[in-house]
Amino acid sequence: MPEAAKTRILLADDHALVRRGVRMILDDEPDLTVVAEAGDGAEAIEQARAHELDLAVLDIAMPRLTGLQAARELSRLRPGLRILMLTMHDNEQFFFEALRAGASGYVPKSVADRDLVEACRAAVRDEPFIYPGAVTALVRNLLERARQGEPLPARAVTDREEEILKLVAEGHTSKEIGDILFISAKTVERHRANILQKLGLRDRLELTRYAIRAGLIEP
C-alpha cells in the first residue's frame, strides 16, 4: 500500500520497550504506519504539531502530561485527529475519561497484541472502541448504577488543576510548572492551594498519594 494511503500514527509511551513492541505490532499491518514517537504527553503534543497525523495512540500514565491530558489538548489543537488510549489498568472509569478527553476508547496493554490493530481501525472509522473483555463488566456496572439512580462520578478537579496536581506530585517547583504550562508561579500557587482545599489534603505527600490513586502518576 502506498505510504500516503496508510494511517499515520503517533505513538506515545514513556517506556521505550513498550513503544518498540507496540510499534512492531502496528508497522506489521499494511494499512498502518508509525510516523512519530513521544516519551510523555507534552512531547506528544509537540510531535502532533510537527507531523501530519491521522491517529494518536497515547499511554494514559506518562510524565509531565498524562495521555488523557494530552488527549484533551490534542482534541482542541487538531479536531480531526483520532485518539486511542493505552493503559496498564483495566478500569472502566478510564474508558469514560478517555471518551470525555476526546478519545475513541482504550486498550489495556495486556491485550494490545490481540486488540490494538482493530482498535486503531475503529478509531480511524470514527467508531468508539471497547475491547471485548470489558463489555460485560461495563454493561453490568452501568446497569447497576442506573438501578441505584447514580450518575457517573464527577471529576473532583478541573483540567487545569489536574495538570498542576500531577506536576506538583512529580516534584516540579511552582516556577517549573509555570514554565511548562505558560502561567505565572503565583497562579500555580493559587491553583495548588485550591486543589489542597478541594480535596481535603494537607501537604505535597498527601497530594502525591492522591495523584497515584487517581492514575496521574505511577507509584
Cα Rg:
18 Å
User: How many helical stretches?
Assistant: 10
Strand order of the largest sheet: 2-1-3-4-5-6
Q: How does CATH name the architecture of the largest domain? A: 3-Layer(aba) Sandwich
* DSSP strand count: 6
> Which residues sit in consecutive blocks of at least 5 with pLDDT less than 50?
none
CATH superfamily of the largest domain: Response regulator
| Domains (count) | 2
Q: What helical percentage do the residues reach?
A: 40-55%
Shape: globular
Q: State the end-to-end CA separation.
A: 43 Å
Whole-number average pLDDT? 83
| Highest-level CATH class of the largest domain | Alpha Beta
CATH topology-level fold name of the largest domain: Rossmann fold
**How large a portion of the residues is in β-strands, by DSSP E?**
5-15%
Q: Give the biggest sheet.
A: 6 strands, parallel
The structure class reads alpha/beta
Summarize the helix and strand pattern as letters: EHEHEHEHEHEHHHHH
Description:
The protein has a six-stranded parallel β-sheet with strand order 2-1-3-4-5-6, with helices on both faces. The protein has two domains: 142 residues, 3-Layer(aba) Sandwich (Rossmann fold); 55 residues, Arc Repressor Mutant, subunit A, CATH 1.10.10.10. Helix 2 runs parallel beside helix 3, helix 7 packs across helix 9 and helix 8 crosses helix 9. Helix 4 links the parallel strand 4 and strand 5. The relative contact order is 0.10. With 219 residues, the chain is of the alpha/beta class. The radius of gyration is 18 Å and the shape is globular. 53% of the residues lie in helices and 14% in strands. The mean pLDDT is 83.
